[in-house]
C-alpha cells in the first residue's frame, strides 16, 4: 500500500503494525497544523485497511509531544488581525477533528510516552487504546497557565479519568510523572528505562497479534458507543454482531485453533 508523503512524521510499516513517529525534535514534537493535517491524512489512508492491525504513536528525540506549536498561534493572530474572525476557531477545531479521528480509528492505537506529554500530546495519550510510559515522562495540561483553555482535549481527558480528576488537572496545570499517570488511569504500564519500554511495546504488539483483527475492530466500535447510545439498543446490536462473529471465518478459525491447540491463523 502507499502511505501519504509526510514532512513532520516518520512512517514505518512493519507487517500488521504502522509505526508513526512525531518528528519535530527541535520543538519537542510540538504539534503544528501541518502535523495535525498529516496525521489526519495517515489515519484516513489506513482506516479501511484491515491488514494494518495496530498503530504505534511515539515521538523522536526523547519526547512524545509538548503540545501545540506557538508559531501556529502567531499565524492565527495575523489572520485575525487581517479580518479572519474565525482564525483561532479553525486552528483549534482542526486539532479536535484529528483527535476525534484518532479516537475512532478502528486499529488498536498504542502510544509510547517519553519526555514531554503535554497539551495535545496529553490528549493523544488519553485516546489511545494502550498507553505505555517511561517513568520519567512528564504529563500535564498547561493551557490555563498560559491564559488559554484545553478546548479540544478536556472532553477526552474526562472520558479517560473521570470528571473529578480531570477538573484537578485542568484547573491547576500541575505536572506529574509516569507513576502518577498510571495511578490516574491515563497509562496502562510504566517502564523504568528505554529498554523496558521497548519490551513492553513488544509484549503489547504480541498480545494484539493473538486477537482476531475483525473481532478487535467490532469490539472497539462497541466499546466506543457505551454512554452514547441507549444500553438496550447497544446490547441488541452487540448480539447481532456476536452471532455474525461466531458464524464468520474468524469465529470458525478461532474455535478450530482452540480445539487443535494451535495458534490461530491471524497470530503472526
Automatic annotation (TrEMBL):
GO terms for molecular function: isomerase activity. InterPro entries: ClpP/crotonase-like_dom_sf (IPR029045), Enoyl-CoA_hydra/iso (IPR001753), Enoyl-CoA_hydra_C (IPR014748), Enoyl-CoA_Hydratase/Isomerase (IPR051683). The keyword Transport does not apply. One of its GO terms (biological process) is isoprenoid catabolic process. Keywords: Isomerase. Belongs to the enoyl-CoA hydratase/isomerase family. This is Enoyl-CoA hydratase/isomerase family protein. It comes from Alcanivorax sediminis.
Amino acid at each position: 500500500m502507499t502511505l501519504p508523503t509526510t514532512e513532520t512524521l516518520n512512517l514505518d510499516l512493519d507487517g500488521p503494525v504502522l509505526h508513526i513517529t512525531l518528528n519535530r525534535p527541535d520543538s519537542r514534537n510540538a504539534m503544528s497544523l501541518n502535523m495535525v493535517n498529516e496525521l489526519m491524512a495517515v489515519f484516513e489512508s489506513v482506516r479501511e485497511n484491515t491488514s494494518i492491525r495496530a498503530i504505534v504513536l511515539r515521538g523522536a528525540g526523547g519526547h512524545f509531544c509538548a503540545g501545540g506549536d506557538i508559531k501556529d498561534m502567531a499565524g492565527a493572530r495575523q489572520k485575525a488581525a487581517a479580518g479572519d474572525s474565525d482564525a483561532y476557531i479553525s486552528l483549534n477545531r482542526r486539532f479536535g477533528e484529528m483527535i476525534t479521528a484518532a479516537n475512532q480509528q478502528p486499529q488498536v492505537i498504542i502510544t509510547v510516552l517519553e519526555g514531554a506529554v503535554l497539551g495535545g500530546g496529553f490528549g493523544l495519550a488519553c485516546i489511545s487504546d494502550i498507553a505505555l510510559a517511561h517513568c520519567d515522562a512528564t504529563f500535564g495540561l498547561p493551557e490555563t497557565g498560559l491564559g488559554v483553555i484545553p478546548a479540544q482535549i478536556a472532553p477526552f481527558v474526562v472520558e479517560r479519568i473521570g470528571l473529578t480528576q480531570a477538573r484537578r488537572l485542568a484547573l491547576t496545570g500541575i505536572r506529574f510523572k509516569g507513576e502518577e499517570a498510571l495511578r490516574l488511569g491515563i497509562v496502562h504500564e510504566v517502564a523504568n528505562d528505554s529498554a523496558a519500554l521497548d519490551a513492553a511495546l513488544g509484549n503489547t504488539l504480541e498480545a494484539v497479534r493473538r486477537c482476531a483483527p475483525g473481532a478487535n475492530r467490532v469490539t472497539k466500535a462497541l466499546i466506543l458507543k457505551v454512554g452514547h447510545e441507549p444500553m438496550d439498543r447497544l446490547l441488541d446490536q452487540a448480539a447481532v454482531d456476536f452471532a455474525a462473529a461466531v458464524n464468520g471465518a474468524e469465529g470458525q478459525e478461532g474455535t478450530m485453533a482452540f480445539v487443535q491447540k494451535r495458534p490461530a491463523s491471524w497470530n503472526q
